[in-house]
């Protein structure tokens, strides 16, 4: 997507912000803009509604709705790209997406690498590391607290 963004910037194609007339619009294309365009069903001629829902009546916070619960109106306007091309792009994006979202296993791997490095250098292995973050004010109980965490390598 960086290549597409660079080509569009080199060809001086106006960005979406420039097209709608934003005063602070950049002339540079970004890969996130390209990714957003490639994942948007609007360009296929579909109208997708109910993408988010409010969490409760008393808050303005919203949550994303699963795709099965969204309302999709197909062929509401003239498509820019064909549905076949859109599906090919979606499959390619899905193949490129990392499926391992378990950050703890990655952190464990880093800790094991650090421990291995220390043992190779002849340094003592650290059994426990205690770290404390700065204190914070809890508005509900009106108390200052300190968060602490411990890690073992």
From TrEMBL:
Checking InterPro entries in the record gives: DNA_bind_recomb_sf, DNA_bind_recombinase_dom, SSR_resolvase
The Recombinase domain sits at 1-99
> Where on the tree of life does the source sit, at the highest rank?
Bacteria
- Record's protein name: Recombinase domain-containing protein
Species whose genome carries this gene: Cytobacillus purgationiresistens
């Amino acid at each position: 997507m960086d290549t597409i963004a660079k080509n569009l910037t080199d060809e001086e194609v106006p960005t979406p912000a420039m097209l709608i007339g934003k005063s602070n619009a950049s002339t540079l294309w970004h890969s996130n803009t390209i990714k957003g365009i490639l994942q948007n069903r609007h360009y296929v001629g579909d109208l997708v509604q109910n993408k988010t829902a409010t969490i409760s009546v008393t808050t303005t916070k919203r949550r994303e709705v699963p795709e099965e619960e969204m309302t999709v109106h197909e062929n509401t306007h003239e498509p820019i790209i064909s549905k076949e091309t859109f599906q090919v792009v979606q499959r390619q994006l899905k193949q490129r997406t990392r499926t391992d979202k378990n950050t703890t296993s990655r952190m464990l791997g880093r800790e094991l690498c650090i421990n291995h490095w220390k043992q190779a250098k002849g340094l003592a292995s650290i059994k426990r590391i205690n770290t404390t973050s700065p204190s914070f004010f809890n508005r509900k109980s009106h108390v200052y607290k300190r968060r602490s965490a411990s890690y073992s390598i």
